[in-house]
Amino acid sequence: MKYVALLSGGKDSCYNLSHCNANGHHLVAAATLAPPSGKDEIDSYMYQTVGQDAIEFVARALEVPLYRRVIQGDAIEQNAEYGSRSAGGAGVLGDETEDLYTLLEDVKVHHPDVQGVSVGAILSNYQRVRVEHVCRRLSLTPLAYLWQRDQAELLSEMIAAGVKSVVIKVAGIGLTVKHLGKTLNEMQDTLTRLNSIYGLHICGEGGEYETLTLDSPLFKHRIVLDETEVVMHTDNEFAPVAYLRIKRASLCPKESSMDGRVEVPPLLEDRFSELKNVVENSVVGGYESDSGGTYQPTNRPCCIPDHPSTHAVGSWLAIGNIHPDPSLNSGIPFEEHVLDCFIRLQGILESHDLHMADVANVTLLLPSLAPKVFAAANKTYAEFFGVSPPSRACVCVDLPEGVNVMLECIARKDNTRKALHVQGLSYWAPANIGPYSQAVTVEPYVFVSGQIGLLPPSLTLPSPPSFALEAALVFQHTDRVIRAANTTGGHVLLALYWLVDDADTKHTRRACEMFCEKTPTLFLVVASLPRGARVEKQVLVHTGEFTVPDEDEDTFTQVSRPPEFLSGDVYAEHTQIFRTADFLPGDVHAECDMTASSETIIGSTRPSMLNWQVSRFDVPGTSPLCVVICARGHPSQEDAIELGKIPSLSAFWKTALSARLFHRLEVDFSSGWSSVSRVLFGDRNLPAATSIPCRYISTQGSDEQWDWAVALVGVS
């Protein structure tokens, strides 16, 4: 695509251009924001303003037109989010971010075919969020190939690629006036040393220093600083603030041409490359499905689900089985069905004093994921959310006759809600391909959107197709999103793997085994996934942070705890419990170094009717947070009673919030679930339930297929 370079003149904005070029994009213009006349720099939260006296030379070196605008606004909105969570929200009047909007709007007038914006952001969510907000309003795609890159590696790559940038401002401990004018190559050892001593950001992401680029692979000329002047802003013995004023500069022909090639980071980290090999070996090792392919349904479920199901626990609200009004004419456009669905959701939320902006996570079930249907669903969906929309999993299932869309959600009014909503192309993980956030944190949970195996720089699936590569990317994307959403990582409490071929469940299970995943897990085969993907991974994460009373119970301490996972089988005469301890989910182990024990109560040889898995924390006053129950046939009331009495689960039934009921198409699951749920929850405490038709259901540890399964999420 044709793109405009958002230039500060520094190393990051210039080096990102080389990666835009490496990914096939074409530079047509440059744009920059400058301080008012007579000022070398201003205190801006968004823009590097020092060095603006030489920015025109950078554009001339690139041989592209430069568009400039004076910064007129201030940093009015300084929170993590920018704009309104309500749909259709514009920017903040008078904020300096709106100067960028006006600047890029002007660029589009002169270059109407521009589709992208090059952004040199590495770590700053503050800057990324605001640039993406502007780009979304102007239908531009941010190109941010440095995003989340390791700073030490990145600095080395810049130097190796021939980027010659000099330090033009110092404002960090250990940096002094003597470092002004030095190149990255000359500064690398110093920056590395200061990083190890003081934690200084090697690429200056904490504002420790700023640079001006004199040469770069895409430059047609190099810049020479003919005359500079040191300006001392704050004379401090340990961390002075000083900058170079560029009084005179010139362009010179480059002594040798650069081929413009840059080092592109590996697609997979080493551990995920190893996972890819494990899955490849599984595929070629004869683990294909004996049935020769995924079950194809001959008919769809005939029963329309009940009216929406709601359940509140404390400040949390879950809503399930949300679908259009059955009286809605089936002949009206698909968008009208989606619209009716969200209007019903909006009404339910408002009846509980909540709004769409309070929704944390959505599961969207569609009858097809053909491009037109997916686009229509997203267009209507977007009408109800603004910035920081909820996380989401979207899958195509065999919905009942007369139902064209269904969804379920979890909401909570919480001022601490945070969203990771990355919309730019990068090497990190895929930008969102719909109106959703990659993750939403409503403590203590992090709701992570379903991840498919897209190549992040292009948002395309691997070609030629490779399930092993898709699976490895899905695991890597999930891991990276979790780490970006919560700096401490967190612990996966529930994992759902959506698949389109039952043969792939065995390969995905082997990937889980390689990562020693003992989290409650379900493998669910459905009709199709977005973009034609073969696997989608959706997880629920817990921060692992708790506030507990000290011994005197007058003060409290913040502690971190890992969860433990237990599982077992239940029959009318037999309960077996398997305990997995000493395991930190989210950690990657070279070997599965875990201890396990089991307790058997009364033996039995009957085929199992119920299987259960649970995630819980050994913290006083808390209850289990996620429970998965799998069933075969029609569990009896005695089986349900046995399940309810298990000590590891007994505290959960009063705190269960939502229930996703997965069932095979040909199975009548309603009577089995009804008998189990009434015993466990009674008639008044039922979690909000959503019925989700599947073609195949299995779980960890066994290739056996279950008739139905329920994934329960609770709050304590």
From TrEMBL:
<dbReference type="InterPro" id="IPR006175">
    <property type="entry name" value="YjgF/YER057c/UK114"/>
</dbReference>
<dbReference type="InterPro" id="IPR035959">
    <property type="entry name" value="RutC-like_sf"/>
</dbReference>
<comment type="pathway">
    <text>Protein modification; peptidyl-diphthamide biosynthesis.</text>
</comment>
<dbReference type="Pfam" id="PF01902">
    <property type="entry name" value="Diphthami_syn_2"/>
</dbReference>
<dbReference type="InterPro" id="IPR014729">
    <property type="entry name" value="Rossmann-like_a/b/a_fold"/>
</dbReference>
<protein>
    <recommendedName>
        <fullName>Diphthine--ammonia ligase</fullName>
        <ecNumber>6.3.1.14</ecNumber>
    </recommendedName>
</protein>
<dbReference type="GO" id="GO:0017183">
    <property type="term" value="P:protein histidyl modification to diphthamide"/>
</dbReference>
<feature type="domain" description="Diphthamide synthase">
    <location>
        <begin position="1"/>
        <end position="241"/>
    </location>
</feature>
<dbReference type="Pfam" id="PF01042">
    <property type="entry name" value="Ribonuc_L-PSP"/>
</dbReference>
<keyword id="KW-0547">Nucleotide-binding</keyword>
<dbReference type="InterPro" id="IPR030662">
    <property type="entry name" value="DPH6/MJ0570"/>
</dbReference>
<dbReference type="GO" id="GO:0005524">
    <property type="term" value="F:ATP binding"/>
</dbReference>
<keyword id="KW-0067">ATP-binding</keyword>
<keyword id="KW-0436">Ligase</keyword>
<dbReference type="InterPro" id="IPR002761">
    <property type="entry name" value="Diphthami_syn_dom"/>
</dbReference>
<dbReference type="GO" id="GO:0017178">
    <property type="term" value="F:diphthine-ammonia ligase activity"/>
</dbReference>
